Amino acid sequence: MTFSARTPCRTSPRQWNPICLIVDDTLGPVLATLTAPTLVARGMLRDASHFDWSTIMFLAIVVYIYTVEVEHRRWSVVLAGLSLWLMDWFNELVNSAVLHVSNHAALWTVTGHTSYLILIGLSIEISFFFAILGIIFVKILPADPHQRYFGVPNRVVYVLALSLVCVCVEIVLNAMGVLNWAYWWWNVPFIPLIVIFGYATFFAVAAWVYDMGDNHRRQLMVVGGIAAADALLALGLGLTGWLS
Q1: Of 47, 159, 184, the residue nearest 104 (C-alpha)
Q2: What number of CA atoms fall less than 13 Å from residue 126's CA on the CB side?
Q3: Taking the CB of residue 211, how many other CB atoms lie within 10 A of it?
Q4: Under a CB-based contact definition with an 8 Å cutoff, are residues 244 and 101 in contact?
Q5: Can you list the alpha helix ranges (DSSP code H) found in the chain?
Q6: Is the model's pTM score more than 0.70?
Q7: Which of 71, 78, 92, 100 could bond to 242 as cystine, CB 3.0-4.6 Å?
Q8: What is the Cα–Cα distance from 100 to 115, expressed in whole angstroms?
């Protein structure tokens, strides 16, 4: 199904028309309204012509970070990092489904320059970021998981603190017009859902996997379970044509 914009989507580098009207070129009638950022992102989606060689450098950095952890046999760090990355992939796939269910917009939409837009809300650069975010997170956790701050478990404190930091970064990106939100309940100032489901779940799972310590069998089961869920969801979305 081919879509075309009835109205211009961008009036200036940082200014969008609120909504672009979409028409099905085959059937003719107006089927739905997609937001302007959605239209722009769909035009960029999996377009290799935007490729930038800096992507290879970013890939090398990610591989190097994991190689160092593997070299020192810090398997808990490696698996915690992978668990957070895979949790993000689950969210990104759900975000893709939201776009198709609503026929309006995903919860978040990525626009602006990227070397490769994998999904409507996931660029290759963002994926690399999440690939190492879990490693960064567990490395700053206190060695004692039972330590408390003012009676609050340190894991809860760090999960919420890092989640708030990441959401603050997203708010800046949103103000720049490169990360777009379309729904009031997933937007400023109503950010609790972004904090909880956008990041806190990621960090909580990473901390949980990391704190399993030397129980690598259990860690592998958790990471493998998340990977399997991602694969099944991706397959289902792909078969229905909802993988965008």
Answers
A1: 184
A2: 26
A3: 16
A4: no
A5: 36-44, 54-71, 75-102, 124-140, 154-176, 192-195, 201-210, 216-240
A6: yes
A7: 100
A8: 24
pLDDT single digits (tens) 52-88? 999 999 999 999 999 999 999 999 999 999 999 999 9
Say which residues have a Cβ less than 8 Å from residue 95's Cβ, sequence separation at least 6: 106, 107, 108, 119, 120, 121, 122
Long-range (24+ apart) CB contacts under 8 A made by 194-201 are: 194/167, 194/170, 195/160, 195/163, 195/164, 195/167, 196/163, 197/91, 198/91, 198/163, 198/166, 198/167, 198/170, 199/162, 199/163, 199/166, 199/167, 200/159, 200/160, 200/163, 201/87
Q: List the one residue out of 172, 173, 58, 40 whose CA is nearest residue 115.
A: 58
- As a whole number of angstroms, the distance between CA 42 and CA 32 comes to 15
CA-based nearest residue to 122, from 131, 231, 60, 1: 131
Which single residue is written with the structure tokens 């990391």?
210
The 10s digit of each residue's pLDDT in 130-164 is 999 999 999 999 999 999 999 999 999 999 999 99
